[in-house]
Amino acid sequence: MIDAFVAWLATTPGSIALHESLYMYAIVETTHVVSITLFVGTIAMIDLRVLGLALGRVPVSQVLRRLLPWTVLGFVILIVTGALLFYAIPERTFHSFWFRAKMLLLLLAGLNVWRFHRAYGLSPGAWDMGPAPARARFSALASLCLWIGVIFFGRFIAYNWFDCDKPQPAFISAVSACRSFTP
Fold first, then answer.
1. pLDDT score recorded for residue 82
2. Where are the domains positioned within the chain?
3. Which residue intervals define the domain DUF6644 in the entry (predicted)?
4. Nearest Cα to Cα of residue 153 among 81, 82, 91, 52
């Protein structure tokens, strides 16, 4: 069912126009990459503060209040540009091993953010100026690792090493849901 939707999406005039555009695809992709610096940069600052490795004299609550609006702005830009990049090349992207790995890490990173904000919100309480509890530090470290992984896997989506139109190991064909290749 998803395969049929993705195949249909690839044939829509907007998808074709965006993919074949001389400048628009490059503008969308560049905006996506630049917004990564805003989003992940602010997340990294927050995580490093929770880990006690940066901004040690600034309360965690103040760091969160000042940086989260910028983080949300970066996230919104990333979602919009990411959706447009998917829309431009939906079949290849959907069947990309790298895309699927990135989406898994995005899901895990989102759950980590949700868990952190559910536990601490914008006011960490007693550890606002002191060392964070072990669970908060673990969440910050997991966040850094997950976002690095998202960037890493996202960067590899552009390469065709594991595209379905090439013979692939059975594992890659299974994970990517390649229909066209039979081992």
1. 96
2. 2-175
3. 27-159
4. 82
Average pLDDT over residues 55-84: 94
**Strands (E) located in the chain:** none
Token readout for 61 is 């609550």
Query: Span 36-54, mean pLDDT?
Result: 95
Percent of the chain with pLDDT over 70: 97
Predicted confidence (pLDDT) per residue in 109-143, tens digit: 999 999 998 988 777 788 888 888 999 999 999 99
Q: Smallest Cα–Cα separation from 95: which of 168, 44, 22, 42?
A: 168
C-beta of residue 176 within 8 angstroms of C-beta of residue 168: yes
Q: Which residues of 72-107 are buried (b: 16+ CB within 10 A; e: fewer)?
A: eebbebbeebbebbbbbbbbbbbbbbbbbbbeebbe
| C-alpha distance from residue 111 to each of 105, 108, 146, 147 (Å) | 10, 5, 11, 12
Separation of alpha carbons 156 and 96, rounded Å: 9
Rg for the chain, CA atoms, rounded:
19
Q: Return phi, psi of residue 164, to 5°.
A: -70, -20
When the pLDDT of each residue in the chain is averaged and rounded to a whole number, the result is: 90
Given a contact cutoff of 8 angstroms between Cβ atoms, the answer to whether 78 and 36 are in contact is yes
